[in-house]
Amino acid sequence: MLQFVWCTLRSQNVKGIKCMSAIDKSLIVPLAKRKYNRMVKYLNQSEAINIDKDLFEKYRFSVDQLMELAGQSCAVAIARSYPLLLEDSSSRVLVCCGPGNNGGDGLVCARHLKLFGYSPEIYYPRRTNNELYQRLLHQCIENGVPILENQCIEKATDSTVLHKYAIVVDALLGFSFRPPVREPFVHIIDMLKSTTSVPICSVDIPSGWDVESGPPKDGGIKPQMLISLTAPKMCASKFNGKFHYLGGRFVPEKLESQYNLNLPKYTNTDFVVRLQ
């Protein structure tokens, strides 16, 4: 069984959150597990789109159903790798949400983090009138999750405004994104690229990365955590951070077989499985 030790970030303290890492990955972490991970299929953009289409049309999942499962998985993965310290139950998390499904996952994640005892705040620079997203935003507000004024981030001259947060969740741009980054996301992504003191947790795709080729020439965002949803995308092979999880335990066996996904098995009732 994989053993863990507790380490702390930023001189033994990350604003009330601990970081979990594995003992000597070359030893106790099973080689078979890493070998298995190499066989997991990494999806290109068209495959990711087609799988979503099949989930909606063939298997009759609704968008909000998958979004709830995906966002909850993200919150579980974050809580697992950055658990709250007992003496500090108010760790602040900035959840940056875009206008699409990735942003919807972020809104769900923020709500569940609040239920887990964190203190999330939402930065939502481009809202949508879509009724689903309006409901998700309303649920966050009713659960006491603050929605930041856009100017709080947009008027910041550098990334120091992020230093008051223990974690930043990047749920801005998903696998349908095609470079380059456009407004109103340029400033926040530049801030995320320049920060080195706050762990970034990217949902499915690090914002600004190409879904297949990975980070842009300037390096792009370097998240400490990546939470792949449904199945990892090709860009995840370029991820060099500490934690890589697979979330969204909803893929039917027939669909997995059809696309030869070879997904790892989830343990017991877990919502996530660690790939790295």
TrEMBL record:
Annotated binding of (6S)-NADPHX, by residue: 101-105, 174-180, 204
Residues noted as binding K(+) in the record, renumbered to the chain: 102, 170, 207
Cofactor(s) named in the record: K(+)
YjeF N-terminal domain sequence ranges: 48-263
InterPro entries: YjeF_N_dom (IPR004443), YjeF_N_dom_sf (IPR036652), YJEFN_prot_NAXE-like (IPR032976)
This protein's GO CC annotations: mitochondrion
GO molecular function terms listed in the Swiss-Prot or TrEMBL record: metal ion binding; NAD(P)HX epimerase activity; nucleotide binding
Reactions the enzyme catalyzes: (6R)-NADHX = (6S)-NADHX; (6R)-NADPHX = (6S)-NADPHX
Keyword RNA-binding on entry: no
UniProt keyword list: Isomerase, Lipoprotein, Metal-binding, NAD, NADP, Nucleotide-binding, Potassium
Cofactor detail note: Binds 1 potassium ion per subunit.
Pfam families (UniProt xref): YjeF_N
EC number: 5.1.99.6
Top class in the EC scheme: isomerase
Domain of life: Eukaryota
Function: Catalyzes the epimerization of the S- and R-forms of NAD(P)HX, a damaged form of NAD(P)H that is a result of enzymatic or heat-dependent hydration. This is a prerequisite for the S-specific NAD(P)H-hydrate dehydratase to allow the repair of both epimers of NAD(P)HX.
Homology family: Belongs to the NnrE/AIBP family.
UniProt-recorded name of the protein: NAD(P)H-hydrate epimerase
Organism: Cyphomyrmex costatus
